[in-house]
Every structure is written in structure tokens, then in C-alpha cells.
Amino acid sequence: MDVLNKTIAVLPGDGIGPEVCREAVRVLEAVGEKFGHHFTFETHLMGACAIDATGEPLPTETLEACFEADAILLGAIGDPKYDNNPAAKVRPEQGLLKLRKSLGLFANVRPVTAYDVLLPHSPLKNDRIAGADMLFFRELTGGIYFGEKGRDENTAFDNCTYSRYEIARIAHLAFQAAQNRRKKLTLVDKANVLETSRLWREVVQEISLEYADVAVDYLFVDNAAMQLILNPRQFDVVLTENMFGDILSDEASVIAGSLGMLPSASVGERVALFEPIHGSYPQAKGKNIANPIAAILSAAMMLEHFELYQEAELMKQAVQEALDKKILTPDLAASGVAYGTEQVGTFIAYCVLDGAVDVALPHKVNMEVGLSTII
Ligand SMILES: NC(=O)C1=CN([C@@H]2O[C@H](COP(=O)(O)OP(=O)(O)OC[C@H]3O[C@@H](n4cnc5c(N)ncnc54)[C@H](O)[C@@H]3O)[C@@H](O)[C@H]2O)C=CC1
Ligand SMILES: CC(C)CC(=O)C(=O)O
Ligand SMILES: [Mg+2]
């Protein structure tokens, strides 16, 4: 077995970011210990914490460290003091967008799975979502988030632009993923209204000729939003532009049980980045209630990126063990007492190290599940 040395740039960010990152690092350390790999973690500032410390949401030192690293693990960024101040000149989100653009991270891959053990407490109809398993390919460095924007007192605009090149490069990745899955690709767009969407359709139709074994269908985004909840099993690979992918994947997280369950990998021209799809959930900061599984599964995607497939599989099995044994944070716990972020992460790390059978259940934290904890 090859032993790897990897340097991982860790950007914990704001809110719950540091808490969920800590658990992902804990589990990666367990993988390193078990298999003999050397993971070096280097922590850097990004987001609101970076603005507070340096005036910049993405300090040069952080960006340079990301270029040098073998992979990047990101928690989340964002803080209400910027969200609630429309006049703020510098925003944490600018740092994230700049990082994605600078690293050429044009494809954000977001897997969504309905976990059987979580079905009984789902707000969705179990018989509709059981077995749902889809993979989002969200374009990440173009579209309306990156277009020219502006405003005067009474008017504001955000431009949405896409080029053939930007569409084609992610479309190829999505088709290749579909070939390795159930061979279906759904393009989600708004081609009845948007010129950019018509270009997406045109390019995807052309590229589909190179992937004759993949069935392609096309859905308008408004319909797709409904179909996701009504009949999610119809989806295999979902390809879409930046903003639609952002919104639909948060919606799809309900199928998985919680926003705290969905991981992602952002890949492109250089080093890859791994992050949970959720934000900084500021209401939960410091309360030890955030679900760390999205961050931990993002770390598992990092291991797959390093081609450490056995290690990644073990990590995913450890997560499944936590779900099976109901070692759940309040967002997933149906009633009664839940576990803390740290307890869930520690349990998963021990499962990686010792195998599930030998791991004692962690002590429950005194955390009554109630609306006050699930804001
Ligand atoms: N990639 C990133 O860093 C992202 C940053 N943001 C930023 O995060 C801040 C908060 O944004 P929101 O719209 O409130 O989105 P959010 O994703 O932070 O939270 C929305 C809701 O999802 C649930 N949730 C999120 N993460 C969870 C977790 N790990 N465990 C359990 N429940 C979880 C909570 O109920 C929460 O109220 C904003 O400043 C926003 O700009 C939002 C999305 C992505
Ligand atoms: C700054 C936003 C685009 C972050 C976000 O919501 C995401 O990437 O999912
Ligand atoms: Mg989002």
C-alpha cells in the first residue's frame, strides 16, 4: 500500500465553519493514523474572520497557500454583520468567489443520497424519496454571480454571461460521470426565457452526440424544483448553471435529511477544494449543534480525489455507522436527546480507527431537540 504525504490547506471560515472543519480534520487524522498517510494541515484565514484580521476576505497569504497545497478543505464563510449591511463595501462572499475563480474551480460536484435510516423522520413522502441518488454538476465560476453588477439609487443589475467554452468543459465532466452511473443526464435551465440557457441547451445537445450511451433530458428550473421533491428518483446526473445549482442543491438536501449532510468537491484547472454545501449557520456558532457530516463527507471526497478509495469507503461506512446507531446532531434527531458536533465527529473518527463494533457510544450531551436548536 502506498503511503501518501499530502498538505491540506484548511480554511475554517466563520460561524460553524471552524467546528465542522475540526471534525473533518479529526476524521482525516484517524484515516492517516490507520493507513500510515501523512496529512499536514495548514490553517488560513478566509471570510469575515479574515476581513476582521486583515481587511481582506481572501488575504494574499491564504490564496498563495491554496495554490501550494495538494487540496483545500473549507468550512463556510459569512456573517450577519455583512449580510445585514447592504452598504458593506467588502463582503466575506467576495473572498469565496475570488478563491473559486482564481483556482479555476469551474465544476462543483454535489452528491445527494436518501439515507434509508433517516427516512422515517423525513418531511417528504418516504415512498417517493427512498433510493434517490443523484449527482449535481453545478457550474461554479461563471453566470450571474460573476457578471458585471451595478446600481444607482433606484436601479440595480447583475449580468449573466456564459461562453460555449465554459458550458462545454463542465458538460463533458457531467457526461463522463453519467457514463459511470445510471447513464442519464438532466440539463436544468430556463431556455424558454434566458438567452444563456438557450446556449446551454445548444452546447449540451451538440456534446451529447459524443455520449450516445447517455440519455439526456431537459427541464426548466421551475419544474425541476418541483420534480426534485415529487419524484427525485428520476434524476441521475443533474447539470446546471451556477445560481440554479446553488439553489436546487440546497433544496435537494431535504432528500438527504439535512443541509448538514451534503458534501461537495470543486474541481477545475488546479488544486481541488472540498466543502460542505451549507453556509456558516451563524445561529449555531459555538453551540456544538452543527452537523459535521457534510464536512466529513467532503473530506471523504478529498480522499477519492487522492485516489485513496479504500480510505474514503471506510470513512463513508463510519458515517453510516453513526446514522445507524443514531449518533445524530439535532437537525437529524427525531426526538429526545441529540449528540453534539464534537461527539458525532469523535464517534466517526473512532469507527475509522477501530471498526464500528469496538466503539463505545459517546456520552449524550444534554441537548433537548426542539425548535430552539433547529433555527
Ligand atoms: N459556502 C459557503 O461558505 C456559504 C456561505 N453562506 C453564508 O452563510 C451565512 C448564513 O447563510 P444561510 O442562508 O443562513 O445558510 P446556512 O446554510 O448557513 O444555513 C441555513 C439553515 O440550514 C441549516 N444548516 C446549515 N448547516 C447546517 C449544519 N451543518 N447542521 C445543521 N443544520 C445546518 C440550519 O437550519 C440553517 O438555519 C450567510 O452569510 C451566507 O452568505 C451560505 C451558503 C454557502
Ligand atoms: C457565496 C455563495 C455563492 C455561496 C453558496 O451559497 C454556495 O456556494 O453554495
Ligand atoms: Mg449555496
From TrEMBL:
Record-listed E.C. numbers: 1.1.1.85
Stretches assigned to the Isopropylmalate dehydrogenase-like domain: 7-348
Broad class of where this protein is predominantly found: cytoplasm
Domain of life of the organism encoding this protein: Bacteria
Compartment(s): Cytoplasm
Pfam families the record matches: Iso_dh (PF00180)
Gene3D superfamilies per UniProt: Isopropylmalate Dehydrogenase (3.40.718.10)
Record field: catalytic activity: (2R,3S)-3-isopropylmalate + NAD(+) = 4-methyl-2-oxopentanoate + CO2 + NADH
GO molecular function: 3-isopropylmalate dehydrogenase activity
PANTHER family on file: 3-ISOPROPYLMALATE DEHYDROGENASE
Function: Catalyzes the oxidation of 3-carboxy-2-hydroxy-4-methylpentanoate (3-isopropylmalate) to 3-carboxy-4-methyl-2-oxopentanoate. The product decarboxylates to 4-methyl-2 oxopentanoate.
Name of the protein described by the UniProt record: 3-isopropylmalate dehydrogenase
Gene behind this protein: leuB
